[in-house]
Amino acid sequence: MNMGTRPVRVLVVDDSALVRALMTELLGAAPGIEVVGTAADPYIAREKIKQLAPDVLTLDVEMPRMDGLTFLRNLMRLRPMPVLMVSSLTEAGATVTLEALALGAVDFVAKPRIDVARGLAEYGAVLVDKVRQAARARVARIASAPSGRKEGPIGYRTTERLLAIGASTGGTEAIREVLEQMPADAPATVIVQHIPAAFSGAFAERLDRHSRMTVVEATDRQPLLAGHAYVAPGGRHLRVVRSGARWMCRLGEDDPVRRHRPSVDVLFQSVAEHAGRNASAALLTGMGDDGAEGLLALRRAGAHTIAQDEATSVVWGMPGAAVANGAAQDVVALEQVAQRLLALSRGS
């Protein structure tokens, strides 16, 4: 969506009057954003969407009369628009939020902690950034429901290859789509998705349900095995190191890189150093430029490198940066990423 010089018009939907007031204040103070209205439940929101034609909706998951997921499902079917979910950073919140992203929500932000006043400035900056990105995002149509774990022919045989994938905004569903296409014995795959600590375990479990590979949240010193994918835990960097004849995961709580921990750059740099030409990597949809320098390091180390194309990215920040700096050998649509990774790993 090209907003030009017109402010981004936001409708805030939350059953808490205090949260509505807080989010209105935080967003209203930002240049280029206008809160055009608020709604205490989805029924009121539905009418205000018709009246006010907002560019972005912030939507609480838990509301009276109609839950956020039901409202989102109806909205994306009847009037698709950029939606930013407001979620509690809990295991239950993670499950619902991942479902919301599958239904077409662009991104999510933590529910503001009203009792922590000094954190509100930082929270407001994140909220404003995500609203602006949502306004520019490509809204996904509701796809057919994920098919679940598929049994099928194996057909891939090597233990000397490694795949690496990085993503941010829009990435939870993009990664799912890539892994759904992988055979059961695909090369070991390491994944960084920008995600909070409370969400990464639920994210790995969701991927595992929809992949022939075994998908787990990575643990420190865990050996990398073919047919397995390893998701970086939220709040910890994931690196790949060589240990004798095999690779293993190393987790770290060192400083964030490009404001992120886990960082795609950190993962990709480690894969470049320890796997080099034995690796293939893909940088998928995401806000910012994390991963672009790491993908360039991979290309220079002899690895095969891919960026998701602009047309299929929710936000073409990270892959776009990799195209701009020359890191990406191939630029392909999301539905082609898995097959391209496998073809490159086979040397074809």
From TrEMBL:
The keyword Cytoplasm applies. Keywords: Chemotaxis, Cytoplasm, Hydrolase, Phosphoprotein. SUPFAM superfamilies: CheY-like, Methylesterase CheB, C-terminal domain. Pfam families: CheB_methylest, Response_reg. PROSITE patterns: CHEB, RESPONSE_REGULATORY. Contains a C-terminal catalytic domain, and an N-terminal region which modulates catalytic activity. This is Protein-glutamate methylesterase/protein-glutamine glutaminase. It comes from Luteimonas composti.
